[in-house]
Amino acid sequence: MTTPVILDCDPGHDDVFAIWLAAAHPAIDLRAITTVAGNGSLAHTTLNARIACTVAGIHDVPIAAGADRPLEGELHVAADIHGANALGGPALPEPDVALDDRSAVELMRDVLTEASEPVTIVPTGPLTNVATLLRQHPELLARIARIVWMGGSTGRGNSTPYAEFNAWTDPEAVHETIASGVDVTMVGLNISHQALVTADVRERVRATGTRTGAFGFELMEFFCAAYAQVEGMPDAPLHDPITVAMVADPAVATMVRTRVDVELTGTHTRGATSADLLGVVPGERNANVALDLDVDRFWSMIVDAVAALR
């Protein structure tokens, strides 16, 4: 039994591993990859998604480009972490995977409409494409099984003291997505910082002996060096693939149903996600929040995926 998935991403080093895990894991049926501006410009994130598939030999999944800016305000990319092209480190090959003629929202719409069962959407970047889909096609809400999003935090942030990057980039999209009533799971910094790319992890990825593993090792080396310089973390957290891992194997993480709101107007807190883990806020429990990661299980999934690809 496989879960049909649309992966909406902004590659980004960690998004690349999310693509590879979604394509390789036997419990995932990857129906589409859509891209959004976030870690880099839309041109870079879209090219990087095609490169990720080229390296790993993924040629049967359509890729479509989406929003080039958030719903409101200007785009601020994460060049300090991901490099000027959003995928710093290895030499990037010319992609041999074509870009679909449809927009991201059009591709999402078609996949949802044509599927014989509801589809899970896994966004690993800002939620701009997802919110736009829900704005333009509210009739498709029932066709979405759930949304498992990497973003937010139950504690402190990384773009501002309280806001995580994906939430901070487009908080209006976060608000609209949660308010839509779709089943949302927030996979925030509180759990992703448990997935540290240690030297042992990097060596396990390289030891797979695959082209994907060699490329992934170079990505991890750059990513860790950037985190060491910018955030003082020599072992970078591999945020995004946790979403895919949770869809493929729910036992990889624990979660709790609670109230989640996003700050839209705070002078110092815009983009902060308020997760009511104490149960003190009135109102419905409107989201799931991921809490604890089975770290060994997670890294075994990543290594197995890299080993299974080209």
Textual characterization of the structure:
α1 (13-24) packs across α2 (42-56) and α5 crosses α7 (171-179). It contains 12 helices and 10 strands. Strands 3-2-1-4-5-6-10-7 form an 8-stranded mixed sheet, sandwiched between helices. The protein is an alpha/beta fold and 310 residues long. The chain is 39% helix and 17% strand. It has helices at 13-24, 42-56, 79-82, 104-114, 128-136, 165-169, 171-179, 189-192, 199-206, 211-231, 241-248, 295-308, and strands spanning 3-9, 28-35, 63-65, 119-123, 144-150, 184-187, 253-258, 260-262, 273-275, 287-293.
Short key terms for the protein model shown above:
39% helix, 12 helices, Inosine-uridine Nucleoside N-ribohydrolase, Chain A, IUNH, globular, Ribo_hydro-like, Inosine/uridine_hydrolase_dom, hydrolase, 17% strand, single chain, Nucleoside hydrolase, 310 residues, eight-stranded mixed beta sheet, 10 strands, alpha/beta
Topology (SSEs and partners):
Layout: E1 3-9, H1 13-24, E2 28-35, H2 42-56, E3 63-65, H3 79-82, H4 104-114, E4 119-123, H5 128-136, E5 144-150, H6 165-169, H7 171-179, E6 184-187, H8 189-192, H9 199-206, H10 211-231, H11 241-248, E7 253-258, E8 260-262, E9 273-275, E10 287-293, H12 295-308
Parallel strand pairs: 1-2, 1-4, 2-3, 4-5, 5-6, 6-10
Antiparallel strand pairs: 7-10, 8-9
Helix pairs in contact: 1-2, 1-11, 1-12, 4-5, 5-7, 9-10
Keywords: Glycosidase, Hydrolase
Domain Inosine/uridine-preferring nucleoside hydrolase: 5-299
GO molecular function, one term: hydrolase activity
